[in-house]
Structure formats: structure tokens, C-alpha cells
């Protein structure tokens, strides 16, 4: 029942700033997460995946070696948050790929100008450590309980109360800011001289991140629509470096801690990682929802990505992969989408980018921009099906299910996904944290639809690993003897690193044996430093 309408031009919507407060500079810091086969290029505050093509490199690529690669699943992604204040006014702060609006500026939320302007300059940066940094730091400490050769990256980590932070970066660390760390002596303070080190809470103590990046941003003085929500957000991007473990080598993790700094209680709050999918060549990408796995996934419309025999280096060719975005410790509330542009025409007005706070709020709560409900069947809008919470929740291999593959046929469009989580009542000072995993799935010899099934199996394995805090996956193995800072230190640490992953094979076997459990496992919220 789809109607096709030829669009002669793409209508661009002008986002006009209505905020009364001054506007801080847009963040300029850019970082790259590349600990394993997956490379995320163009991380910015509020923007875990930014649509940057530099020297032919896509925002996300797989097996990056410096040459052109297909975009591995996302063209752009950003944090969305929205709710209502005590007066019933809708507040939203939503990062998109459009060049004009930027709801988030760097730094913690102070609520005062020009303090936030100074924050935006000071905090427009990423703090980062590698696995080698962590191994060297731990080996140095384990040698004699004394940190003989402190590493600048570890000393500057903005863990709670770090007494060395100001000396390293030139400005003080606020008391309520804390990048995640392992608190060795349990005193609540990050001090590398006590053996403390950067560490995601999702990992067991002896499982070290291959790379960690951390930043903080807020929506106090960004350039967006209406009144900002009033939050600051501490963001950690991290990945594991596990030789021989294909699943973890093709996954990156995004961790968020959102704090209500507005001074007012917010209600009906929802949060999402908005993303514009792109799998190799654009225009032939479909997506769907696996409700029980708290995931949205992207797959190719055809079993050949790009024109036959095109030799296009930016396409996957035959048997294209599947990518997934999974909430690991929060249930999926709604899965919605909106058109960016295309020939799929439920109503011409639906094809325009969102342009009003109410429209963003509707999308976060699983409704179309005009407030009408998502409906089961067709495109979910111009249809007579029952209202539903999830877009395309069926398996594309099953013709009886509602999937994009069954509903869209030869439709030509570009759409963005909005998988949301429900916060609800959000009083001043309250914190909402979540962990998300973005993963790549491509089984040998599997076609575009078979890779969907393969991806579901791997998402379940990933959830098991997460629930077990990745015990057995790339553990740290301390060297029996080490002399940090001397000529043998690097070789010894490298040797420890090279032998740290074989036990992951046993962990993989354990996970494989757990596949038979239901996809509908309870979600365990995990918070804390």
C-alpha cells in the first residue's frame, strides 16, 4: 500500500535558535577509537559517530588498514534526550548529522555564563588510554607497590578526586566529575599512586580495555530548539583487543552517565542513540528491531551491495554483513524511525527532517512527527494495523513477519533509527546510565538474510559476556618479573599481552554452550564507577 512520489529536490530545514541564553562554541575535539578490527573515526562530544569522510575513510570501518573501506553500519549517530518540565513544557536536546544545530557543548554543566563558555574551551578534549598504558601501569605498581614511572595519560585521567589532575591539565577537576576507574584501595578517590587505573565498570578487574576514550558535555548553551533539557553527560567509548575472538574484535562499546542539572524535576523522559544507518553503499539499507535482544539491526536489501561488477571499494559486494546496536543494561522502550528523504511517501510532510521540539519528543516516544502512533504493517504510518511500540520487529527471513524486507520492496529511501529507553521521572541530581554495544556480523558464505540470524546469535553471546563482566575474555596476565622504565619493560609487557588471550577461547566455548537460553533474559542495570 506504499505510494511512490518523485521528489525533485531535497528540502533542507533551517534550525533556528530560540534559546535566550548565550551560545557556546561547537565542540571541535575529534578522537578515533581503534583497538580492534572496528575503527570509529570522528568521535565528538555528543556525537559518538560523526559523518566525516576524511581521506576516503568512512565514519565506521572494519579491518582498517588505511585504504578505502565501506561504511560499516552507521553514517552518523548522536545522543537524544527529551522530557517535560514541571510547567509541562517539552524540552529536547537531540544531536543529528545536520550541520546547523548542536545541542551539546563541551564540559560539565555549571548553569552560569560565562563559566560554561570557559568550560567549553577547557573540556573540548578527549582523555584516553590504551591497553599498553594499562598493562605498563599495573605492572609498575605490582612490582613493588610503588609507582616508579607514572604515565601522563594515567595521571591525567579525570577520575573522582584525582589530586594530580590540575598539575597535568592546568585546571581543577570538579568534585562531581568522574571518569570510570578501578579503585584498588577502595577509598573512593582516583590516585594512580595507589594503583588505581582507568577501567569501565562493565569489565571485571583483570579484563583490560584495549582502548578507552572519555569526555564530558552538556546542553546548557548549545544551539538547538527551545529550552535545553538541562543535563551533563559523561561519555566513555571503549573496546576490547582480543586476539582470536572474532565477536569482541568486531564490537565497540558506548557508555553514558546522564545527570539532571536543570534544578527542576523532569517527567516522561526518554533517551536514545539516534543513528543514520549506512552499510556499504547507501540507499539499499534496511533495518529492524529484535525486541527481546534490546537491539536494532541494519542489513542489506539485496545480497549484493552496490551495482554488479562495479568494483566499488566503498561497497561490501556479495554476502553483505549485518550490524547491530544493543542496549546491554537497559530495556528497549520504543523503536521508531523517521524519513530523511526518499521515494517512500506515507505523507509528503513525513519526508522532511524533524524541525520542532514536539516532533523530536514524539519520535522518542515511538510516534510519528505529527503525534500519530506507529502502526503494525506497511511503513508503519499509512496503514490500518494496530498501534505498536517497535518498528519492523519481524525476522526478514519470515514472510509472515512485519519487516522492512517484506513491506518496502523496491522502495528507495534514507531513514534514521530512534531506539529509545525510558527514564520517566527524573528529579534534580538524578543519574541515568546505560551501556550500548555496536557490533558487526558477517558469517562466512552467509547471504544478506542469513547474516541476520547469525547476528542475532552473536548478540546473545555478547549479552552473556557482558552479564559475566567479560570474565575469561582477554584477561590481564601480570608478568612474573618486570622492571618498569628499563629496557626490558616494553618487551616484557608485550609478552604478557601476547599470552593474555588464549583463555578467551574457553570463554567462547562457555558462551556457545549458553546459546540455548531464551533471548528474553532480564536486563540488569549496571551503574557505578
Could you explain how this protein is built, in words?
By secondary structure, the chain is an alpha+beta fold. 16% of the residues lie in helices and 26% in strands. The chain is built from nine helices and 21 strands. The strands form five sheets. Strands 6, 7, 10, 11, 12, 14, 15, 18 and 21 form a nine-stranded antiparallel β-sheet that branches. Helix 2 crosses helix 8 (489-498). The chain is globular and about 65 Å long. Mean pLDDT is 83; it is low at 1-19 and 479-529.
Topology (SSEs and partners):
Elements lengths: L30 E3 L4 E6 L16 E3 L9 E13 L5 E5 L10 E2 L8 H8 L4 E4 H14 L7 H4 L9 H5 L11 E2 L14 E2 L12 E8 L12 E9 L11 E10 L5 E14 L5 E6 L4 E6 L3 E2 L11 E2 L3 E6 L6 E9 L14 H8 L39 H5 L4 E14 L4 E11 L8 H18 L21 H10 L4 H11 L16
Antiparallel strand pairs: 1-2, 2-3, 4-5, 4-13, 6-10, 7-10, 8-9, 10-11, 11-12, 12-21, 13-20, 14-15, 15-18, 16-17, 18-21, 19-20
Helix pairs in contact: 2-8
How many E-type strands?
Answer: 21
Beta-strand proportion: 25-35%
Number of helices, counting only DSSP H or I runs of 4 residues or more: 9
Rg value: 23 Å
Structural class: alpha+beta
Q: Main β-sheet, in a few words?
A: 9 strands, antiparallel
Low-confidence stretches: 1-19, 479-529
Shape annotation: globular
Give the fraction of residues assigned to helices. 10-25%
What is the mean predicted local confidence, pLDDT?
83
For the record, give the distance between the C-alpha atoms at the N and C termini, rounded to a whole number.
51 Å
Give, in order, the helices and strands: EEEEEEHEHHHEEEEEEEEEEEEHHEEHHH
